[in-house]
């Protein structure tokens, strides 16, 4: 049966590109795993799959098993806790994270996907039918921007394979289509496009879980103080006008950008081969080279300033979806 083992499905939607939808998907997934939930990410942005790059696994390949494709593991579940830490999250077991993307099926990451609508629709149906997720508390679906063939195919297929009713999901083996998280930036041009996504959810009978206003200001990497370089508050106003939940704002986090770009804390590229005038790398001229951080992505993410925001989002979604928290 398709989606066997998946309990809750959450769509991540945006009205336009460039609002950071994929980065929001990843951070929400990481935050949910740190709440002890097992999470999967399904990337159906077929022409611009970015999840493999964001998780640092561009060279990973999909494994075929008797039950279907096996998603690529990002990190395994862990029951270990840190007794020396005062943070509550350090005393919780960590859930697993796996992902599936067309990017893992391309021979080269630079290959262009030039497909017409029917082929995109067939690929999405195959992703939903032929991936063996196993026991998964939350399946986050990273969608392309707008309301296109991919969204229509996704909605039709999910409404067939799952249910939006919590009681029906609890009394059957069907996963629950919990709803959609909408991502926007503060500017009016972005919020106006998100209104179309709200209309899409209404017409397809997909619940709306809330709005996240991304790139709302700039967070200083040293102190976390937020400066509004452009406008702010557009997402909150839009949510109030439409009567939907506003989850919160996320400023630009330089540390998270460095994390997914594979750069060290000083902003230098970890695999750079630039040399100084004396033939040595610039870092070697002034100081000892930094030790590579071998921690899993999820543990390094906890050092990012934005983690606190997404921890709140994750806890809110768990309460709203499960009705009782952890």
UniProtKB/TrEMBL annotation:
GO terms for cellular component: cytosol. One of its GO terms (molecular function) is ATP-dependent FeS chaperone activity. CDD domains: Mrp_NBP35. [4Fe-4S] cluster binds at residues 220, 223. It is found in: Cytoplasm. Gene3D superfamilies: P-loop containing nucleotide triphosphate hydrolases. Residues 261-297 are annotated as: Disordered. InterPro entries: Mrp/NBP35_ATP-bd (IPR019591), NUBP2/Cfd1_eukaryotes (IPR028600), P-loop_NTPase (IPR027417), YlxH/NBP35 (IPR033756). Residues 268-278 have a biased composition (Acidic residues). ATP binds at residues 15-22. GO terms for biological process: iron-sulfur cluster assembly. Keywords: 4Fe-4S, ATP-binding, Cytoplasm, Iron, Iron-sulfur, Metal-binding, Nucleotide-binding. Component of the cytosolic iron-sulfur (Fe/S) protein assembly (CIA) machinery. Required for maturation of extramitochondrial Fe-S proteins. The NBP35-CFD1 heterotetramer forms a Fe-S scaffold complex, mediating the de novo assembly of an Fe-S cluster and its transfer to target apoproteins. Belongs to the Mrp/NBP35 ATP-binding proteins family. NUBP2/CFD1 subfamily. This is Cytosolic Fe-S cluster assembly factor cfd1.
